Amino acid sequence: MYRLHTLPSTAGMAPHIVLREIGAAHELVLHDRDSGVLASPEYRRLNPNGRVPTLVDGDRAVWESAAICLHLADRHPEAGLAPPVGDPERARLYQWMAFLTNTVQADAMLYFYPGRYVTADDADRLKAVIVDRLADQFARADDALADRPWLVGDRFSIADAYLFMLARWTRHMPRKARDLPHLGPFLARVMDRPAVREVFRIEGLAEPYF
Ligand SMILES: N[C@@H](CCC(=O)N[C@@H](CS)C(=O)NCC(=O)O)C(=O)O
Asked: Which of ligand 1's atoms lies nearest the C-alpha of 53?
């Protein structure tokens, strides 16, 4: 059985969705952000970065949300959440997963934790720059969804779970992913999935959902 360590409404959402889409037996460990547990030696043994998510699979801990999603898709090919290795569509999956985690998510971190990068005086200026950068990046996904319901192939994949997770992080920003013409309906489509609804219920998330 898997164990997923996470906090509500964070980078743990995509792996949580993927576990539920697969229907894999798992224990969800929903930590309290203020409990200090992420800094504890026990947790740091699982994830030396002291961040969420962390997936425990047998005697192995895997950290980095995108790596966890890829690992779960590989372990459960029958769920069809990633094209097979070697399939040209698999390259498309790698492309989106890499872009989402190393460009979009990396920039989003600057918006949510500006104090880790600049002084308080510069925080608002940094956040304004990031809002524009994210809007430009989500426009790439919006373009990709202009003539297809999902990012990769013709069915929902881990890339869609990842895009959904990051896009909803803009819901309180001045420029929202949901306002884009194709991304808005995409977010509604993902939100309608029973697995996703269940994740929101379990994580205790309120509207606006995205
Ligand atoms: N690149 C990492 C980012 C992990 C990350 O920054 N997680 C945040 C939540 S979204 C976290 O644990 N924040 C708690 C903290 O930094 O204290 C991943 O995708 O797993």
From this structure: 20
Give the chain's domain count: 2
Cα(11) to centroid of ligand 1, in Å? 6
CATH number, domain containing residue 16: 3.40.30.10
> Are 66 and 101 within one domain?
no
- The closest-lying atom of ligand 1 relative to the alpha carbon of residue 7 is 9
What's the gap in Å between 81 CA and the centre of ligand 1?
23
What pLDDT digit, counting tens, does each position of 4-14 carry? 999 999 999 99
The residue segments making up the domain with residue 182 are 88-193
Condensed to tens digits (0 to 9), the pLDDT of residues 98-134 reads 999 999 999 999 999 999 999 999 999 999 999 999 9
Do 118 and 142 belong to one domain? yes
Same domain? For 176 and 94 the reply is yes
* Phi-psi category of residue 106: left, alpha or beta, with phi > 0 → left and psi -120 to 50 → alpha: alpha
- Rounded to the nearest angstrom, the distance between the alpha carbon of 157 and the centre of ligand 1 is 22
Mean pLDDT of the residues in the chain: 98
Whether residues 62 and 105 fall in one domain: no
Question: For the whole prediction, is pTM greater than 0.90?
Answer: yes
SS3 30: strand
Name residues contacting ligand 1 (CB within 6 A). 10-11, 38, 51-53, 64-65, 105
Please work out, in degrees rounded to the nearest 5, the angle formed at the alpha carbon of residue 68 by the alpha carbons of 13 and 103: 75
Q: Which 3 state secondary structure label does DSSP give 5?
A: strand
On whether both 189 and 95 belong to a single domain, the answer is yes
Residue 135 near residue 178 (C-beta atoms within 8 A): no
- The pLDDT-based confidence of 94 (bands split at 50, 70, 90) is very high
Mean pLDDT, residues 166-174: 98
